[in-house]
Specification:
The chain has five helices and no strands. The chain has 88 residues and is mainly α. The longest helix is centred in the last third of the chain and has 23 residues.
């Protein structure tokens, strides 16, 4: 059975636009009768999924390095504060 990727049903598109890939796959299965693998492949092969540029649900992005820098600065500031406080 060929995988229908173009166009996806409107309900599936709406789920993708909300960022809910799992819901999109479930809806694709319900609406088309595809199996799990075929529905997942169809959703992932769609141009809409590619445009969203999203990872898997629950996946943590790797752009958090600035957070570590900020945390280190806050810790350094607290240490400096307590050292200066103890001298006065």
């Amino acid at each position: 059975m060929p995988i229908p990727t173009d166009p996806l049903p409107p309900e599936v598109l709406a789920a993708l636009q909300r960022g809910n890939k799992i819901e999109a796959i479930k809806l694709m299965r319900q609406l088309t009768g595809l199996g799990l693998k075929e529905a997942k492949d169809a959703v992932e092969a769609s141009p809409e999924h590619a445009q969203l540029g999203q990872g898997s649900p629950g996946e943590v992005g790797r752009s958090g390095s600035i957070g570590w820098v900020l945390l280190a600065l806050v810790v350094a500031a607290l240490i400096a504060f307590y050292l200066m406080r103890g001298q006065g």
